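Supplementary Methods S3. Input chains for the assembly prediction are listed below.
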Amino acid sequence: MRDGIELDAVNQTTQASQKIDSANIAARAESASKIYGSGESEVRALDNVSVSFERGKFSAIMGPSGSGKSTLMHCIAGLDALTSGSVYIGETDLSKLGDKDMTKLRREKVGFIFQSFNLIPTLNAYENITLPLSLGKSKGDKAWIQQVIDTISLNDRLDHRPSELSGGQQQRVAVARALATRPEIIFADEPTGNLDSKSGSDILKFMRRAVTDLKQTIVMVTHDAVSASYADRIVFLSDGHVAGEMTDPTPEKVLDFLKHLGE
Amino acid sequence: MFRLSLKMTVARKGRLFLTSLAIILGTSFLSGTTIFSDTLNSTFDRLFTDVFRDVDAYVRSTDSVDTGFGEQRAPTPVAVLDTILQVKGVSAAVGDMQSYARVIAKDGKPIGEDQGPPTFGGIASLSSAGLWNVEDGRLPNGAKEMMLDRETAEKGKYEIGDSVRVTALSGTRQFTLVGIANYGDISSPGGATYALFDQPTASEFLLKPGFVDAILVQGDGTLSDDELAESIDAALPTNAKLETLTGAEITEETTSQIKTVLGFFTTFLTAFSFIALGIGCFVIYNVFSITAAQRQRESALLRAIGASRRQVSVSLLVEALIVGVLGSTIGFAAGIVLSRALSALLNAIGLEITTNGLTINSGAIVQTVLIGTVITVLSAVLPALRSGRVPPLAAMRDTALDTVQKLTRRVAIGLVLIVAGAGGLFAAMNGADVAILGLGVLGVFAGVLVIGPALSKPVATLLGKPVSVLRGVTGAMSQQNVARNPKRTARTAAPVLIGVALVTAFTALAASIKNEIRESIGSSFRGDYALSVNSRGFGGIPTSVTDQLTQLAEVDQATGVGFVAAKVGDESPFVLVFNPETADGLYDLSMVEGTQKGLTKNEILVEADKALNKNLMIGSNINVTLADGRSMQLTVAGTYTDAYGNYAISRELFEGSATPLFDSFVYIKTKEGVSDESARTAIAAVSQDLGIGTLESRDEYIDTQAAQVDQFLALIYGLLFLSVIIAIVGIIITLLLSVFERRREIGLLRAVGMTRSQVRTMVRWESVITSLFGAVMGVVLGILTGIVIVVSLNDSGFSAFTLPIGNTIVILVGAFIIGVIAAMFPAWRATRTEIVSAIASA
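Predicted structure tokens for the full assembly:
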């Protein structure tokens, strides 16, 4: 039975990969390797990983601690540099960008949602949401920002400082900020890791709606099966390798796969 | 982005206040100094404009000696008055005198201080060209009458009809007070005292019969001041060596002379305000470094969502800009208060300068705010650049990165600076320029500050040893806390280091100078008593007093020594004047070559090093011009080592001269077998009649002279006080920020059972160790600096250096107390840490 499920998942992956054409890819890594240390203490966080993320989809990266999932995300998002291999956002090769262009790319094409310490404590919710726009000295699309704010239903909290918001509300502001520039891709690093389950599922629903209703692209790193099940597709990592993929996941299917991965 | 930076800054009011504090203190000193000197300048501007209001022309001698602190001019013959009065366009002309005269109050004490505002004697005249308005009584007439300015009359409690004692060039006399006058509209100009006589009495008593200082002229209004001056000049005898100035010219000249003197003084004050600002710089740099590290995650987050390095750096610089403008504006306001304190400080050490109100120029505001802001922003540049370099990934790490950089490069740079500096010092000790000495000191200081972080860990660990032994685990934690961030410890200790080094250097210098004064007077003064006044250069003891003393039955020998301004070669020094006949065996110049006995009026003695320097030897000729215009060639008759001044001439040169010569001190030797009591009684009879001068035994005199250095040292201490305050504030701010940064750690300690008082103890010892680290380094640097300065400015080499052991101990104890005081508030804050929220907060 287990074998059947694994086979099923792999089959689905193969089929899904075939369906993706290159114009529809938001970000991809090719033969990506990341090595920390050298000699005896060498750690291969990523070992020759090739993976693509489709535009307009909610993707998840899963794996146990130390599997390299966070490293993969940091490298694809341009926060960290690869030891070898290359990473593309759209058609842009990140390894060829200097700090200036990388900054511009982060500001305009990429959005981030972190696990915690997501907001600037001295700015209110609205200012935090529009911060990437302010940094680029652009007014942004007012209607779009309003639409985003409506989606996360924070209209009545916009002039509050982060310290006056609950953890869930803070994270919703962070989601809105990531959406504000209408980036090509949003990366979320354990966005529900610090939240209670109710707030957590709220955030996941908002992210889901951002993809479905607002046509955004999100890549989320998580180790929680329930969170991952909100995604359209899951990439499993283990010991720095891609260990498998799954489309249209449910929590049960994910847990089963992980159980197998653990063995 | 600018607007956001602004908001982010203003939102952190506590941090804004802490950072501003350092710049507030630094700039307040600067603005205080500026306001103070502006006030002095405008006071004298107004005074002299007022004084010369009715003077259209001013006739004086062309002969003068510039002393560097104003000039001394030859007198003008009164006879020229007749010539001037006949010039067309002249309505009135009158002699003017500002000579030395000391009014003695009814209690026998002189009115005014030796080093205070000048005590003048002058001419009272009703001529409209004169400067005085008679308030009560009438003008003095004849050799027995005088007039006083209102303020002096009030100080001496003198009324019309009283008998007033006055001491001047010709000795002490009694006059009948017949009038009280105002100077223009004011009771006394700048706190000076005035004894006024008719012209013949004034000339005879204060200067030389038939001579005045200058002639004041008033026109009848038919000619312009320029034309008037020209026609007077044309009428003057061609060989009289006289010149005519317009009223405007003499006003301007007098004002600018005063301003030159004040300029020395304000430059001195400004130097200390820049020391305070420099120390403030360190504190600002430190605060920005710490806050930049504390908001590393914030900076990283900004970078992750698309802020460029520049934007992150700029946001910190915007904060610095706000702090700078805000801090220096408040600092300016505080400076207004401080300028009052400066005045009080100077009054306290006897340098009284009377001012009316405060002068606050817009230039002072602009200067203060500009300098304060620029300095703040510059201090923030390095921390800003550093925070721009934070990797975006740091936003996702749980703990702030504690970058422990290798200190090798730092140590290398520091060592290069120290070696270069030491080279300069070595050169200076072997006779190189004073500028090299300054650069050398700067190099060593900079080197030590650069190396600081490498030293702070071992030194702080060592200093903390006793604490950890004494205070157990709490003390050990203090020790570790100081050692765990060597850079921060070094930066916090730097202001203490600089402050303590300066205090120590000045103390060592003062101790050495004192010692030298003692030795110098000790070897030159061979008598039993000294009668002395403190005023050098203007007035003093009439030379006739020495003769009076010599005639006493108790006195074996008495000799007076005075100083006059003269041109010697290409210099204009104060020249020592003594009497070779009476000085022998009583006042000993410690001759190297030749003898002081029998020095004639055609000869001069030169200080040994000066002689070497100027290539003068016995038999060399040197040109000397006295203030009365007499120019002569003197032959070097010997060289000496122990005396004030580089040149010494005989009193004989001044016989019949119109150059006023006073004695600054008179040395007295009593006859054998005369008891102290009877000697004092006899000498005091003369000095009490004189009304001025302090009578002291040899030991008392030496003590008093050496103690004058203490007065100067007290002024330096006062001026460094603010720098020390800034250093304390620096420690307070750093500790507060550290306590805030470690609130989780402190919460954890509290959770596992550390009491509040233990938390307090921990923070307190951390502060004390940091402060002591700075102080120990400062004392070492300060003593070294003192040694170098003493050795390079003094010929007797290292032996001239005196280590002020007592003061050094006081400084170290002071640093300990500073540490305890600085820790009070931060320690209290640390105990307020709430355990649960501290641990919960991310």
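Chain B touches chain A at residues 1, 3-4, 7-8, 11-12, 297-298, 301-309, 311, 391-393, 395-396, 842 (CB under 8 Å). Residues 534-692 of chain B form one domain.
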